[in-house]
Amino acid sequence: MAGKIKEINEADFQKEVLDKKMAVVDFYSTECPPCDALASKYEALSEIYGDDVAFTKIFRQGNRELAAKLDVSGSPTLLFYKDGEVTGDKLGGGILRSDIVRNLDALVGDGKAKELHAKIKPVETEADVVVLGGGPAGLTAGVYLAQAHIHTVLVDTALPGGYVSTTHQVSNYPGFIEPQQGFMLSHYMSEQARANGVEFKVAVEVDNVDLENKLVKIDGFETIKAKKLIIATGSKPRPLGIPGETEFAGNGVSYCATCDAKYYQDKEVVVIGGGNSAIEEALFIARFAKKITIVHQFDHFQANKEAQEKLLAHGAVEVLFEHEPREFKKYGNMDMGVVVENLKTGEKSEVRSNGIFVFVGFIPNLEIFGDKLKLDQWGYLETDVEMRTNIDGVFAAGDVTSKRYRQITTAVSDGTIAGIAAGKELE
Question: Distance between CA 28 and CA 77 in Å, rounded?
């Protein structure tokens, strides 16, 4: 095992963790992409902190009793110990390097941390192509490039999969007779890219992107130098920008039905929006909630007819057409209020519920690139037919680009074109 890391089991836990002055434990699983994403960070940090902190790994499935005792239910999970007691954060999922460093610094103290940080040396990695974004567009571009034996590094601030991984069900992706869970479709795509040789640097922090020189700096110390860049950073849910939204985000206001609908079993919820995402996600929420009130600014839905019919056939759905939300309020745990305005009369009223879901479209993830890229009037990247942007050697693909339809299939199409076009320029 690379780095200053010791593989242990339950029998070793007392000696190798609890009896140490300082220790960190990685509960991992096999065939676990988040575990793979963590491994290189964990190994590198063990080389820096390993003389002061005992770095250990435990196979979670092979040590179930210990994992259950420590309330470890997912992989990877990092636990930090000082003098035999758990301290700091319990880290899981797509673990950022900075979060590990913060907890290790707290273990060793400020003085020692400063000394150890001085050991961190800048690293430069070379690649033919860097793909920024691990959704369907970026993964597809990676597959085409890697199959052409082009060294490709895929960089993402989260785990591979993109927004699709938060979608409860995908029923219109070719090749699958039955609807697929979004996270599984994402998993198939990312594993295909990995199997073809795409190098993943995921759950990282992107510090800077130099588009002209094709330089991407991540995690504060590593710079990836490429010949071509493909921007496939996707988009994120559009906020409403009304009072209460920021304050209660994640605490009564949600943008992800797959993530949060299960918490509203036999509860009442409000859904804001009337497009495809709003109606399809409301269908999923209807599996749990006993009542759904949909607030929509127009006098009809914009979603596909089949989804509309399914939702409206559900007996517990009420629709407030030609209404807009003006404020979110919170009265207690799972006790929310939405102030809505009737657009025809101007009258305001309040709808009480246990939770609120917002699905009013998306905005492109372009903040890190500055103002050098040419955008359309809605803020999306303009490209030519081969997905080239206005900067030489920089391509774009997927939901971040200017186009009429944004679907998984259109993202995959963009990724195909960008991957092939970038590869051709390297011949």
Answer: 7
Question: Which residues, 6 or more positions from 139, have their beta carbon under 8 angstroms from its beta carbon?
Answer: 154, 160, 189, 190, 192, 193, 198, 415
Report d(CA 63, CA 66) in Å as an integer: 6
Q: Does domain 124-236+362-425 have CATH number 3.50.50.60?
A: yes
Domain ranges in the chain? 5-117, 124-236+362-425, 245-358
Task: Give CA–CA dist 241/296, Å, rounded.
Answer: 16
Contact, 261 vs 288, CB < 8 A?
yes
Out of 52, 99, 105, 256, the active site residue is: 256
Residue 408 has phi, psi (to 5 degrees) of -60, -40
Percentage of the residues of the chain whose pLDDT score is greater than 70:
100
At 166, list the tokens: 């938060």
**The CATH number of domain 5-117 is 3.40.30.10:** yes
14 exposure class (CB count in 10 Å sphere: 0-12, 13-18, 19+): exposed
Tell me, what's the pLDDT at 167? 76
Contact 424, 227 (CB under 8 A): no
Write down the pLDDT at residue 416.
Answer: 98
User: Mean pLDDT across the stretch 355-373?
Assistant: 93
Sheet holding 323-332, edge to edge: 323-332, 335-342, 348-353
Amino acid at 295: V
Known active-site residue 259: yes
CA distance 329 to 350: 9
Judge residue 248's burial from the number of C-beta atoms within 10 Å of its C-beta, 0-12 exposed, 13-18 middle, 19 or more buried: middle
Matching fold, domains 124-236+362-425 and 245-358 = yes
Active-site pick, 156, 260, 399, 414 = 260
Stretch 202-215: mean pLDDT, rounded? 96
Among 259, 299, 384, 392, the one annotated catalytic: 259
372-392 residue pLDDT tens: 999 999 999 999 999 999 999
Q: Which CATH class is domain 245-358?
A: alpha beta
What integer pLDDT is reported at residue 1 of this predicted model? 54
pLDDT class of 2 with cuts at 50, 70, 90: low
At which residue do the structure tokens 């590869």 appear?
423
Q: Let me know: does 366 contact 206? Beta carbons within 8 Å.
A: no
pLDDT(397) > 90:
yes
Neighbours of 415 (CB within 10 A): 30
256 included as an active-site residue: yes
Structure tokens at 197: 């040789």
